[in-house]
Structure formats: structure tokens, C-alpha cells
Design a protein that fits this description.
The protein is an alpha/beta fold. The protein folds into two domains: about 240 residues, Rossmann fold (3-Layer(aba) Sandwich); about 35 residues. The chain contains ten helices and nine strands.
Length: about 290
């Protein structure tokens, strides 16, 4: 059975490949982007099967209007792909207030506005699949990516809670955590210049050079292959809550989680000490 999609950030990168893959197999897509001119070739190829929706995810009213337009045009929505976002690169000390707020407005609040706009429709039809594109960066952290990590870690917790809230309505939620993908013209030779840059402080230059060398060794994933994997995911009767796209960061993630468990175990006595041993009357009064 064909599906009807709503995809944000669909003009390029992974979002563009998701739209192309869905259309190629006969699905219908409301493809949103800040500039829909980038979608004109798809309209020429697929006609009414694609509805370009011009919106900025940071504008809540625009998001709600775009979702309503998509529902009016197609009659329903089955797959929601929250894909819009970008990476802010810079040490915590380097980030301006405006840059950090902009990062969260797009990556976090933009996703929230889409979820809030589509949920009344999904609850009414008692079906639907919300796919949140986060990042492997939502599961661990590295220096110079604090703003981006903050947004992606927030999305992880938000969508985990969301999945529990909407399960009784027949709505599924999947958090996709991609590694590095060649979303521009091949793999960017400078992995620290693949997003929005904070004004640099020379104190962090050595760290910047070291991190660039490390990230430059990561294999770049194929966005087209990711799109085919997404099709399998949304066709699954029991999709996972979380899934990695790409294997490059898997060894690191295993170590990160093992180290966390080990640290919690090592400091368990202190954790118990911090809890204290209040008697029942003191617990009630507190």
C-alpha cells in the first residue's frame, strides 16, 4: 500500500534522497523546504505525487499551515520525517547566544512544531510513523560540537518520551542516528567546515586540528543507500525506537556506554550516600 509522506529539509542531502526514494516507488510526498525552487525537477517528473511546501521550521505558524496544506492536498499523512537541521561547530566558549539559540530553534524547536502539527491528524486516523533524524552525535559527545550535541541529545529524550505518549494511538516513533554521510559533493575534506562556524578562539586551534584529523578518517555513507534503508524501516510492522544509519561510530558507542555503566558502578556507594537514609516521617516532610 502506498504511503503519504511529510519530509522537512527536503531540498538537499538526506532529505532530498528520502523524497526521491519515496516518489520512485509510487508514494506521495509533501516535501518541505525553505526554498522549494530546488524541488522543481521532481515536480516535473512526478506531477501531483509531490507537493512542494515552502516553510521555515523555526516558524511555528508556517509549520502548522504547511501541514494543513499537505493534509488538504493528500487527505492523510502516514510517514513524518523530521529531517531539517544543521551543525553548529565551535567550543562552548566560542558560541554566541544568537548562534546557540538559532541551533536549538532549528534542530529542536522546529522538530517539536512539526510533531505538534501532525499529531492531531495521526491520532484521529490512529496510525502514522514519526521518524526523527537525530545523529550519532545524539548518543555521545566530542569537543567543538557542544551546540549541535545539545540539540541532538534533546531530540533523543524528546522522541523517546513521545513514543511512549502516542503508542496507544497507533502512532510509531523511530529515532534514526546517522553517522557521517556525503550529503554535499562527496565527503567534505574539512569535516569541521561542514556547518555553521562560531568565531574561533586561538586557544582551541590545536584541538581543532587534532579533531579534524580524527573525523577525516570516518567513512562517508551513501545517502541513496540510507534512503532505501528508510523505506524498509517505514514498511516494518515493528520498527525500532532507535536505529543507527552507518557503522563508523558503532565501536565508539559501545565503549561510551560500557564506560558509563562502569563509572556508575564504581561510584555506586557515593550514589547511595547521596541518597541518605531519612526516616519515613522526614521523607514525608521533605
Amino acid at each position: 500500500m502506498s504511503k503519504t509522506w511529510f519530509v522537512t529539509g527536503s531540498s538537499r542531502g538526506l532529505g532530498r534522497k528520502f523524497v526521491e526514494a519515496a516518489l520512485a516507488r509510487g508514494d506521495r510526498v509533501a516535501a518541505s523546504a525553505r526554498r522549494t525552487a530546488h524541488l522543481e525537477d521532481l515536480v516535473e517528473s512526478y506531477g501531483d505525487a509531490i507537493l512542494p511546501v515552502e516553510l521555515d521550521v523555526t516558524d511555528r505558524r508556517s509549520v502548522f499551515q504547511g501541514v494543513e496544506r499537505a493534509v488538504e492536498h493528500f487527505g492523510r499523512l502516514d510517514v513524518i520525517v523530521n529531517n531539517a537541521g544543521y551543525a553548529l561547530i565551535g567550543a562552548v566558549e566560542e558560541l554566541s547566544e544568537e548562534q546557540l539559540r538559532d541551533q536549538l530553534e532549528t534542530n529542536l524547536f522546529g522538530a517539536v512544531w512539526v510533531i505538534q502539527a501532525v499529531l492531531p491528524h495521526l491520532r484521529k486516523q490512529r496510525s502514522g510513523h514519526i521518524v526523527q533524524i537525530t545523529s550519532a552525535a545524539g548518543l555521545f559527545s566530542m569537543p567543538l560540537g557542544a551546540g549541535y550535541h545539545a540539540s541532538k541529545w534533546a531530540l533523543e529524550g524528546l522522541n523517546d518520551a513521545l513514543a511512549q505518549e502516542v503508542a496507544d494511538f497507533g502512532v510509531k516513533v523511530t529515532i534514526i542516528e546517522p553517522g557521517g554521510f556525503a550529503t554535499r559533493s562527496g565527503k567534505n575534506p574539512d569535516p569541521l567546515n561542514n556547518g555553521h562556524l562560531a568565531e574561533t578562539n586561538a586557544a582551541y586551534d590545536t584541538l581543532r586540528e587534532r579533531l579534524a584529523t580524527t573525523l577525516g578518517t570516518q567513512p562517508a555513507g551513501d545517502p541513496g543507500a540510507a534512503a532505501q534503508a528508510l523505506l524498509k524501516l517505514v514498511d516494518s510492522d515493528s520498527p525500532p525506537l532507535r536505529v543507527l544509519f552507518g557503522t563508523g561510530f558503532y565501536p565508539m558507542l559501545k565503549k561510551v556506554y560500557a564506560d558509563r555503566l562502569q563509572t556508575w558502578a564504581q561510584w555506586h556507594d557515593l550514589a547511595a550516600e547521596a541518597q541518605g537514609n531519612l526516616d519515613p516521617e522526614e521523607q514525608l516532610s521533605s
